[in-house]
Amino acid sequence: MAEKLKCNACFAHSKKDIRIEERELVYTSNDIVVKVEAGGICGSDIHYYQEGHAGLSVLKHPMVIGHEFVGKIYKAPIDSKLKVGQKVAINPSQPCNKCDFCLAGKQNECPNMRFMGSAQFNPHVHGGFSEYVVVSEEQCFPYDSSISPQIMAFSEPTTVAIHAINVAGSLVGKKVLVMGAGPIGGLIIAAAKASGAVEIIASDISERCQKIALEMGAHKAISPLDKEIFNEFSKDKGYFDVTFEACGAAAAIESTVAVTRANGIVVQVGMGASPVQYPVAQMLAKELTWKGSFRFIDEFGIAVKWLEQGLIDPRPLISSEYRYQDVEQALITATDKNISSKVIVTFFE
Questions:
Q1: Thinking of the domain 161-292, which architecture would CATH place it in?
Q2: Where are the beta strands (DSSP E) in 231-317?
Q3: Res 274 pLDDT > 90
Q4: Could you give the CA distance from residue 117 to residue 6 in angstroms, rounded to a whole number?
Q5: Span 148-153, mean pLDDT?
Q6: What CATH number belongs to 3-154+314-346?
Q7: Predicted pLDDT at 2
Q8: Is 163 helix (H, G, I), strand (E, B) or coil?
């Protein structure tokens, strides 16, 4: 028999129109109900607020935003391994597990993916910026209750970073460049360090982000505007074994070819404007491998463990924290990259 639960949630209606409104959750005794504790604002949340769309996903009706969130079990089936009160990180990915991509272990390419907080499909898939959410047991990853929800709210973006590392392959003993030291770039730095990279250089225009990059584990942080340094890295067929492009700027994407050594790997993580100019002749002459990294596959549990065990400490990336009732101000603050890396929204009573 279905049960109902009323709660408040953060609904994006259209461009610059976000409201705290009551919603009614309908669930059965077979569902997991999570009481949300904290979540992080992602770039897609900002786009839905600032523009009314994120890429080609356009808001057609009010949608609960947020896909980086954690909480505790409020209700669970009697036969569930999950227990009431248990702390869990939520994987927002809901692949169909039936298509050719899913069956081949490439769930991140699932054309039927129901990703929480996404307007790709109509009706949209509501996200996690809600006092309570209904999820499946497969989406719930328990974690040590002594770890703060603010730290574990980084589970989803940390998973994105770990997937990028997996796309690159082994980093043991490698020289690594991370272009763009925002939240994803910062987490890639930390993941690269945990994965055995011997030298990690971060590149970002912002001095604030350069400082954060060092706190996240980079050995050195530089500005892409420093042509002298980049010219040095471009000598003798490049310097870096692996380059992670995590900002999406056209100039950064183009410059990856010069600084990556011959036979090296470039992992494209940042989603920038398309198309971009790309030095194909130089890329093929150096026999570079250019790989895309999109979301993640089965790395979510790894990310939870790495955060839980302190292998990755995301705290330098936290720039501010807001109650969910102030979500609009949180989004406005998160938009300003001069002052913000990761803005956390809390749902504590």
A1: 3-Layer(aba) Sandwich (3.40)
A2: 240-245, 260-268, 289-292
A3: no
A4: 19
A5: 98
A6: 3.90.180.10
A7: 86
A8: helix
